[in-house]
Amino acid sequence: MRAAVSVSAALPLALRELPPRPLRRGEVRVRTGAIGVNPVDWKMREAGPLYFAYQLLGPGGGFVPGIDFAGTVVELGPEASGLALGDRVVGGTDFSRGQRGSYADEVVVRPDQCAVLPPEVSDETAACLPVPAVTAWMALSERSRLGPGKKVLVLGAAGGVGLATLQLGAMIGASCVGVCSTRNVALVEAEGAVAIDYTKGDALAAAAAFGPYDLVLHLVGTDVYPLAACRALLAPGGRVELVVIRPADYPFLLLPSVGTLLGAPNRARLTPLVEAAARGALRPRIEAILPLAEAEESHAISRRGKVVGKLLLRP
After folding, report:
1. What are the chain's domains?
2. Which residues lie closer than 8 Å to 109 by C-beta, 6 or more apart?
3. Please, which residues have CB within 8 angstroms of residue 57's CB and are 6 or more apart in sequence?
4. Which one, of 79, 133, 64, lies nearest residue 296 by Cα?
5. What Cα–Cα distance (Å) separates residue 85 from each residue in 30, 68, 74, 88, 120?
6. What integer is the mean pLDDT of 69-75?
7. Per-residue pLDDT tens digits for 166-186
């Protein structure tokens, strides 16, 4: 198998040939057709909690990053059920299960980590869903259980998670406000949301005019939008969900109004998202598709924090 590998998390990713791992009981092999790039992929290479968790729980050998993938089932292990050879699927790898990441031409996962794709959903569209859309889904439907008439503020509305939140929010009848740069105002408005241009002044003060909010989805970092100011925008019973978290934020996680969130893709969460994509309610925006050999460049692009929608790799 070909994979983008770093022999240590600090060294650049390079394309290497690795021996394919034999399937264990209940596993399947998927030939990848498209691979999603997320900020968490390069954050796992830094000396933080995710890096140490990977060192403790992840597979040995070189570091292969990545979670999101879409492709075709090409092999079934003993007692693997729920998928068939030739099924097109979308899913996410899980290093806590001893699995390599998705930056490869194949992945080994369990069937409960995958949802079957209908013909209407391409590999490229599907590979945008696992972490970004699942994060949005969990924030809206699991953590906050929002419905019609509820209000959502998205800080960082033009990225993959932000756009998915606006689209899923519209799908459930919530009213969304998205903070973004000037160049993305039209994009956010096209999703039916109120757009607030952060270059025009105090974005949180401008957002207050449309609140209070049942959910503030914080995708930027509290060094930019302080947590206290975000909490002041909440309606009774509302929550701030932090996707980008700093050490200074940890004490606030004890409060019922503050949580931290990263999408954990599985079949139960992916299935309704695939259905939404098939009927056009969920429409991921793809910024660029790079070859797998340019995985290191994809991380450099992602680190700049200016990606609109989603970056993909093609094996």
Report:
1. 2-128+284-314 (3.90.180.10), 131-260 (3.40.50.720)
2. 27, 28, 30, 91, 92, 93, 94, 99
3. 95, 96, 98
4. 64
5. 9, 20, 6, 9, 19
6. 98
7. 999 999 999 999 999 999 999
